[in-house]
Fold this sequence. Notes:
Largest sheet of chain B: none
Largest sheet of chain A: none
Oligomer: heterodimer
Strand content of chain B: under 5%
Order of helices and strands of chain A: HHHHHHHHHHH
Low-confidence stretches of chain B: none
Distance between the termini of chain A: 48 Å
Amino acid sequence: MADLWQGYIWPGIIIVAQILAIVLPLLGAVAYLTLMERKVIGAMQMRRGPNVVGPFGLFQPLADGLKLLLKETVIPTGASRVVFILAPMITFILALIAWAVIPVNAGWVLSDLNVGVLYLFAISSLGVYGIIMAGWASNSRYAFLGAMRSAAQMVSYEVAMGLIMISVLLTVGSLNLTKIVEAQANSVWFIIPHLPMAVMFFISTLAETNRHPFDLPEAEAELVSGYNVEYSAMTFGLFFLGEYANMILMSGMTTILFLGGWLPPVDIAPFNWIPGPLWFLIKVVLLLYVFIWARAAFPRYRYDQLMRLGWKVFLPGSLLWLVLTAGVLKATGWTPWN
Amino acid sequence: MIIQGLAFYLFSIIAVFSAVMVITARNPVHSVLWLILTFFNAAGLFVLMGAEFLGMLLVVVYVGAVAVLFLFVVMMLDINTLNLREGMAEYMPVGAAIGVVLFAEIAAITGGWMLAPEVEAARAQPLADPGAVSNIQALGNIIYTDYIYLFQASGLVLLVAMIGSIMLTHRTRPGVHKQNITAQLDRGRTVELKKVSTRGGI
């Protein structure tokens, strides 16, 4: 009995507690990211943004969430019911489980996988299913068009993202996310040697999360709202939560790969007083700000321009940089492994 | 070990069940979705075996890319689900024959492991000590050091196949307006940028 407690139940409780410790703050962050987005865009367009519910509109996300919960879920006739319900669930779950390998501080990670980067890449490549299933199951032309655009877009930009990740992995010599950050502690943040890749990676994450200026899947002017046009209430809410959780995840990924994760910019007095998780948070919020900034500043890409950027600019560019990185590492003997 | 056993049976039962559903589902799109579930559970089994790299690769390549294109094509096809079962008797023997051959091959291999211990030893030989070397390194050593020429050759074959398929499907259509980005960027200063003061206008 004691064995059962020691071997299975207690570790199980700990794991569940850790999962809650990741998911609950994440959901709070998602809620307030929506508020931040509306406030920042409001400021950029010289409006106030939400300011009625609570002080400075701080309770607006709660009111929105409550509203979504209380609305009726409508399933259109002719929709494939199971797939229709499954699609938002998949989107949301995938956005959450990726966080299992994100290290917020040295050792603050649910699962310190050896293939952490690959796991993240795999999970983010699955994100397309939620959208494509939603588009197909809705049995609507607009939704299907949006889903097709999204699938093509996500598959295209994943290729470039993978190659950019390989450049970083080569300089580290490991696929473990904690080791990637530790390697940056011993040298410099990878944004310095890999600056072009960092910019390309960030743009690819914009495309991967279907955010502006690459939000063709939900282009409201032509496709009404794209793949989620038939969704209402909490099924729509899950898509919404999933999209914003994905934005935070992608910012976290960029932070770990290029901005030194939980590390302070320089390891001297006033900077290293701030604890690591706070640095991580600061960097993620900065990147999220750029996400929102891009939304306020840029018009939407045309579809062929999007494909051109992905296949004719990012793919050759990242491939060239990969060969260059490998060549420099080999020639100078900076290889971190042997 | 109990947990691992449970996880193994969970993954394998779901994998077998969804593989059966792939061929029995009425709607072809549902078939593809079941196929994806099968891939996913196979990846889970790989991870359980300690081959986490292969497991992740299975998810990235098959689930993340190949199956998406599959799903795409199946969704775009206008399939009449009613007479999908036509010609069942015609194709059944061929399919069954392929199945029997595959099954016989797998049985031969695993039977070899069971009956002859030296075959089992040969199977384990190319892998380095799994405790010391991560399986990315082990795979890298085998592919890029021991079998580099075969690997390069297979890469070349794939490249040729890719160029061939592009050449076969590519056709030049008249009257298509293409955007020439270079020409646009090379255009002189016919458009003027003006600094407009906020709330002032031009």
